[in-house]
Amino acid sequence: QQRDKLRQYQKRLSLGLERERALARQLLRDGKKEKAVLLLKKKRYQEQLLDKTENQISNLERMVQDIEFTQIEMKVIEGLKIGNECLNKMHQVMSIEEVERIIGETQDAVEYQRQIDELLAGSLTEEDEDAILEELNAITQEQLELPEVPSEPLPEKIPEVSPIKNRPKPELVAAS
User: Fold this and answer.
1) What is the residue range of 36's domain?
2) What residues have CB less than 8 Å from 24, skipping those under 6 apart?
3) What is the annotated localization of this protein (predicted)?
4) pLDDT of amino acid 158
5) Residue 168 forms beta bridges with which residues?
6) How many domains does the chain have?
């Protein structure tokens, strides 16, 4: 509200400054130099008031921004406070001892299930594992059969290809 009142005051001063300047010109034309000087002094004083008013408006706007930011900070702090209270209540419901007990029970259940799986699947004996390793070695030692390589020498001249439909020239076909 105060900012708005200061803005209205600025407008009144600005309008008054324009009128006084015009009046000072008129006084100079009429030859009343002393009155014109006095009027210009008054105008100068009002310009200084206008500058002070502008500074006050800036201060008020800065203060309003600071207040708004402080309100936001207060809401954040209130949110943090509520969050901490909620965490504390949750910690009271679930203690560290309770969590450790649940984790221990889970690990025991996993180990028990693993033992059941081993019994049902029938674990391999040491002899079975040795036999598997021997079979793996035998497979890797087998030589792969490679195709036979021709014993004839390769032809030295490649038959020329006719540009028509990529067919060999007739004299080369007959020679083969």
Assistant:
1) 1-125
2) 36, 39, 40, 43
3) Endosome membrane
4) 65
5) 161
6) 1
